[in-house]
Amino acid sequence: MKQVYLLTGRPGTGKTSLIKQAVAEMRGRAGGFYTEEIRSGGVRQGFRLVTLDGRSAILAHIDIHSPYRVSKYGVDIDSLDRVGVSALREATEQCDLVVIDEIGKMELFSVSFREAVLRIIDSGKRVLGTIMLNSNPWADAIKRQPQVNLVAVTRAN
To answer: Which positions fall inside the AAA+ ATPase domain (predicted)?
Structure first.
């Protein structure tokens, strides 16, 4: 039986909301992280990474000057590794469910993140996550893993 469920779909279709709802309703312990928008005056300024145990860090922001960029956002790889990858490692060791929201362009800049995702998928743990819709060689290889059940999320479903 497949243990890894990865939601994919266009931005704004409710993937993160579905993950939060599933975690709230599950029995057992969940760990990992999700991402949320940082807004000011109704305008998106960046993205915050939030762990299920309450830690947070800025993942990307228009004011971050970094060689790692997605569109207008500078990506803070150190914060991702320190908070996000750490949360994934802890969840793999201690939890019944590992949450990864998301496997996307920003996160894939981190070698430690990619290594953690591979370990988690091979661990036999239950995983609920999101993965980028657009084609990317690394993400596409994850989507093809035999343990992965890819679920397309749309506004209609």
So the answer is: 1-154
